[in-house]
Amino acid sequence: MYDRSLKYKWDNKNVLDYAIQEAKAEGKEEGAHDKAVEIAREFKKLGINFEDIAKGTGLTIEEIEKL
């Protein structure tokens, strides 16, 4: 009985730890994308062509056109 309870506890902890890890990774990706969008907006204001902005930021030309 105790072993089963302990296994249940550790399984739940592992699931929670994995979810936290995935959420952090997703947050970092979103933050990086937001920063790329911010940089692209500034480059667009400076008149830099879209192809160069796309190369520098990793955004698509379509995304840059919508900014």
Task: Tell me about this structure.
With 67 residues, the chain is mostly helical. It has one domain (15-66). It has helices at 2-45, 50-57, 61-66. α1 (2-45) runs antiparallel to α2 (50-57). It is rod-shaped. The N and C termini lie far apart (60 Å).
The biggest beta sheet, please?
A: none
**Rg computed from alpha carbons, rounded to a whole number of angstroms:** 21 Å
Q: Which parts are unreliable, with pLDDT below 50 for 5 consecutive residues or more?
A: none
The ordered string of helix (H) and strand (E) elements is HHH
Task: Write down the overall geometry.
Answer: rod-shaped
Number of strands: 0
Secondary structure category: mainly alpha
Features:
mainly alpha, rod-shaped, 67 residues
Per-chain topology:
Blueprint: H1 2-45, H2 50-57, H3 61-66
Structure described in brief:
With 67 residues, this protein is mainly alpha-helical. It contains three helices and no strands.
